[in-house]
Amino acid sequence: MRPTPEQPIGIFDSGIGGLTVAHAIRTELPQENIIYFGDTAHLPYGDKSEAAIQAYSVKIADALLKKGCKVIVIACNSASSAAYELLKEYARHIKIINVIDPMIELVANRFANKHIGLIGTKRTVQSGVYARKIEELNEGITLHSLATPLLAPMIEEGFFDNKISHEIIAQYLAEPELQNIEALILACTHYPLIKSEINDYYNNQMTILDSSQVVAVALRKYLDEEKLLNSSGGKQHEFLVSDYTDSFEASTRIFFQKTVHLERYPLWS
Ligand code: DGL
Fold this sequence. Notes:
Blueprint: E1 9-13, H1 18-28, E2 34-38, H2 50-66, E3 71-74, H3 77-90, E4 95-98, H4 100-110, E5 115-120, H5 122-127, H6 129-137, E6 142-147, H7 151-156, H8 163-173, E7 183-187, H9 195-201, E8 207-210, H10 212-225, E9 237-241, H11 246-256, E10 262-264
Parallel strand pairs: 1-2, 1-3, 2-9, 3-4, 5-6, 5-7, 7-8, 9-10
Helix pairs in contact: 1-10, 2-3, 4-6
The structure holds D-glutamic acid.
């Protein structure tokens, strides 16, 4: 059955990272109802196997479909790299949007013949999906990727903007892989939360690319083309978590500026 405009947009990530995308979507599409799923029981995704992330993603897609979502945004690079193709097959009747393709499009338009760095989780970097898609563009772009596995758990704990996070970020960014680059892709949706620290490291002299905005724009374009934009202005935001954590609730408040109610939604019972 064809979805209707009033149905909500489903968004998921392992934890708070996808809230950076949800926030951009809310800003771009203020009339939309949003259901956010944080798979806090299984985070971090970045060090899980492809098969595990696929299993979690299918369960989450099921939950979002049951809630009647008209589109699902995989607001996670690790899950986009591991489970996008599978979810497209699994939930055929609705659109699945990942966070990788809109970034590839942006890079294609702006960085032909340049050297670009990328930081992300082990799952994302090892999947080689960015490297493959950039190679396919044939625009002479050289990608230099580095897995930065400490960052997502650190951010999830709210442990940033302090001396130790500066030090960890500086150590990663000083690695040989990331020298002589002209832009840096934040290939993890948690990393916009440390964007100012990354900017400080580079004295604001590096172009930092984060996908939240481009994903929101891609989503708007799709909804517009399919006449699925919600004009009735429901604006309900629902937050589901596979396990309750204080840090998730606190971060949700930072992004959505009001008391949020977290609904515990175990994926296996
Ligand atoms: N925010 C996610 C990503 O974009 C997942 C990070 C994690 O859970 O390891 O990859």
